[in-house]
Amino acid sequence: MELDAVLTEAVKSGASDIHLKIGSKPKMRVNTILRDIPGFDTITPQDMVGFVNKILEKSENKKAELVKSGEVDISYSIHGLSRFRVNIYKQRGTYAIALRVLKTVIPSLESLMLPEVIKKIAEEPRGLVLVTGPTGSGKSTTLASMLDYRNEIFEETIITIEDPIEYIFRDKKAYIVQREVDLDTKDFYTGLRAALREDPDVIMVGEMRDLETIQTALRAAETGHFVLSTLHTQDAKDTISRIINMFPAEEQNHLRILLAAVLKAIISQRLIPRKDGNGVVPAVEILINTGAITDAIQNPDKLFMIQDLMEKGKKQYGMQTFDQAVVELYEKGLISYEDALLYATNPSDVELKIKGITTGEEETDFGTYGF
Known about the structure:
The protein is of the alpha/beta class. The protein has helices at about 5-10, 45-55, 60-70, 115-120, 140-155, 190-195, 210-220, 235-245, 250-260, 290-300, 305-310, 315, 320-330, 335-345, 345-355; strands at about 15-20, 25-30, 35, 70-80, 80-90, 95-100, 125-130, 155-160, 175-180, 200-205, 225-230, 265-275, 280-290. The protein has a seven-stranded mixed sheet, with helices on both faces. Strands 3-2-1-6-5-4 form a six-stranded antiparallel sheet. The radius of gyration is 21 Å and the shape is globular. This is Twitching motility protein PilT. InterPro entries: AAA+_ATPase (IPR003593), P-loop_NTPase (IPR027417), PilT/PilU (IPR006321), T2SS/T4SS_dom (IPR001482), T4SS_GSP_E_ATPase (IPR050921). GO terms for molecular function: ATP binding; ATP hydrolysis activity.
């Protein structure tokens, strides 16, 4: 079985992800549904050896990492078809592979159905913006779209540190440097620290995985750079708590003050299947760092107020909670009643709002989602 043939068929079928393991037929995810890739038999051990060797043939470092740790991240491309983000890992003593299909065209913010306020967030001259959500929620695509929007309107230097590089940027007004972990730099922390010596206006860090990276990102934002990154957190309140709790207890008060000073916004995403079966639509929670939000970040006894502040700040600041976003998507006929409750943070509250027992907020303008 040829790896490129499997991937070609999956991409032509509209797959977002491909899964390969010994003893199963190749699988693909299309519009959130997992299904067989047509035309292929069960994967044999010999097939898997060929797949792994094909993906790793140009990287001895990645081969060594796979043997040492049992898993490795890398990119793979088929000329004229697509690029892929790849994770090779062990399961039951044998290798398995998960591949994410990377889009070749960076979608616009409008096509992603993202709220209009995200354009304003993307135009910030300095500070920290975080895009959060579970794996597969579109974080990398949102970041790429925000950066390409800046690329169209600002003459500046943008440096990205990614693992791996997902979207390929073309210079428009901006000068863009893209660095890939392991290929161009050792890790996120090393790349971020080096970026500060490379005359950046904007720095995008693919993920803030460790304390050192978070510390350096905060310092970069504090010293006048615009820093964007991602975290695998569920919502804004969880994101703030996660960052603070990564630091030793004796440093947390100082960290709250620093985070409150540099944070501009937190954008959290969940992708919900469309009611018409035509792909997915994003439910987006948005926190904007207003004076009241700053106070809630600095004071641990007020952190619980953030959800209420976001809900009440929708009209004035463009903030919104997940539940407000979900209700709006339901009212627009984009998602089903069942999915509205399934993806809500507080299903009982959403159920009441949908039934009209509580008063809804004003609608946000959405476009057409492009994932």
